[in-house]
Amino acid sequence: MEIKKLEDLQTLVSLSKRRGFVFQSSEIYGGLNSCWDYGPLGSQLKLNVKLAWWKAMTRRSDIVGLDAAILMHPTVWKASGHVEGFSDPLVDCKECKNRFRQDTAMVDGKVICPSCGSDNVTEPRDFNLMFETHMGAIKDENSVVYMRPETAQGIFVNFENVQTSMRKKLPFGIAQIGKSFRNEITPGNFIFRTREFEQMEMQFFVKPGTDEKWFDEWKQIRWDFYKTIGLTESKLRYEEHGPDELAHYAKAAFDVQYEFPIGWQELEGVHNRSDFDLSQHQKFSGKKLEYFDEANKEKYLPYVIETAVGCDRLCLAVLCDAYREEITEKDGKKDSRIVMGFHPSLAPVKVAILPLSKKPELQEISHKIRDDLSLEWNVEYDETASIGKRYRRQDEIGTPLCVTVDFDSLEDKAVTVRHRDSMNQDRIPMEQLKTYIFDKLQQF
Ligand code: ATP
Questions:
Q1: Which terminus of the chain, N or C, has less C-beta within 10 A?
Q2: Residue of the nearest CA to atom 12 in ligand 1?
Q3: Is the distance from the beta carbon of residue 149 to the nearest atom of ligand 1 less than 6 Å?
Q4: Quick one: pLDDT at residue 444?
């Protein structure tokens, strides 16, 4: 058997549309550039990705959750450095009028237009990536608010609220999932880089001096997370930011990179942000944000280790990683099976119920099984087309198990369970079905 992995994003874009994972936003109006809608299966997949992350974070006794507002006091973005510094240098090509990021178009120290190859370009101008809007009825410079470009600041400004309300002692972390907005100059590559996206961020507050130890620990924890959700380990790597790449707030930074069909790209950032953010907010708000360590009678501003991953980008990695085409040849005839080999915790549909015929006696048992299993899992019911076609449909959306109800089931009170990856089949008594499925889904 020949196995082909995903070679280009276009194949995934088509599958995503065909099978209800991701659609282009406002498609009937011609679409909106680099905006995407998650369909019925995509939204479930995304929810499962978030749940996996949320559980991995907040089930630790030293991490609590938060859900801060998207709109924040405008001074937050002055304190964080986003008003001043959150910009990309933009250049216009004088020949073909193309506009592009200077830093992505440097060739041998020269800026070359990626569209026409000319070096006849304007001086760079800074372009702030924050989306602005106005709050209230009057639109003037005093009513400007920003759509948050990262979720982290919602955590920093709530550090004291969370610490005192939850009586947390250092070290502890705050985890958050939420939308962020960046007016990216060059969005693209499907859901890899968009202007509206979701982030899953965790800021871990530690005593200065212990930050390097915690930084190493979080690097390992995040690596292990990707293994737990089934990403291929050889497609993951850590890349360290050199001194000239470090963000203004960072003492150290590593990116977790994944090998997408477009090459190795950042999936997550693990940063040592020092006490930059808390000290800035302390300065700009005038409120003391120091932590009092009762045991040692010490007062200090905590350091922060941050782990920040894009939920959409992780969904893309999960989709790319899951895709495979199995090609077999029998009697000179080629057959192909497309499988989304999701880890079962992420699979949008866990079990499909497939009665062999539409006869009422089979429907009756099948409906009962569907209703019973639906109490535990997201289940699909399909009684159309041949059983072979129905298995292929489930393979293509990554359903780990299919339950087939046949005429023998009426007599022996058993059903056939077919496995997505091995295609093996087991005959299981109906009364043991739930325990069997629990067991198989856990075993992955
Ligand atoms: P990049 O270098 O790709 O622009 P970044 O270093 O600015 O990303 P961070 O600010 O560290 O990214 O954000 C953390 C994570 O959020 C990134 O690792 C990525 O997964 C995700 N992310 C950032 N920008 C976008 C975007 N425009 N679209 C989708 N995900 C994004």
A1: N
A2: 269
A3: no
A4: 62
Buried/exposed 299-313: b ≥16 CB within 10 Å, e otherwise: ebbbbbbbbbbbbbb
Structure tokens at 94: 């004088």
Q: How many CA atoms does the CB half-sphere of 323 hold within 13 Å?
A: 20
Give 10-residue mean pLDDT values along the chain (444 residues).
Answer: 95 97 97 95 98 97 98 95 82 86 85 91 85 91 93 98 96 98 91 97 97 97 97 97 81 95 97 96 97 94 98 98 96 94 97 96 97 97 95 98 97 97 97 97 79
CATH class of 2-72+148-319: alpha beta
CA distances from residue 337 to 2, 10, 86, 390, 444 in whole angstroms, order as listed:
11, 18, 46, 12, 21
Helix, coil or strand: residue 78: helix
Ligand 1 atom nearest to CA at 187: 27
> Could you tell me where the beta strands, DSSP code E, fall in 226-295?
236-240, 252-260, 263-274, 291-293
For 20, left (φ over 0), alpha (ψ -120 to 50), or beta? left
Cα–ligand 1 centroid distance for 385 (angstroms): 43
pLDDT of residue 249: 78
pTM over 0.70: yes
Q: What is the pLDDT of residue 186?
A: 83
Looking at ligand 1, which residue's alpha carbon is closest to its atom 19? Answer: 310
Q: 221 alpha carbon to ligand 1 midpoint, in Å?
A: 20
- Ligand 1 contact via 197 beta carbon (within 6 Å): yes
Q: How far does residue 215's CA lie from ligand 1's centre (Å)? A: 19
Query: Any idea where the domains of the chain sit in the sequence?
Result: 2-72+148-319, 349-442
Residue 234 per-residue DSSP state: G
- Give CATH superfamily name and number for 349-442: Anticodon-binding domain (3.40.50.800)
Q: In whole angstroms, what is the distance from residue 437 CA to residue 378 CA? A: 13
Closest CA to ligand 1's atom 24: 193
Using a 6 Å cutoff on CB, does residue 418 contact ligand 1? Answer: no
At residue 250, the pLDDT reads: 82
Q: Is the CB of 271 under 6 A from ligand 1?
A: no
For ligand 1, say whether the CB of 178 is within 6 Å of any of its atoms.
no
In short, whether 343's Cβ falls inside 6 Å of ligand 1 is no
- Burial class (CB within 10 angstroms; exposed 0-12, middle 13-18, buried 19+) of 189: middle
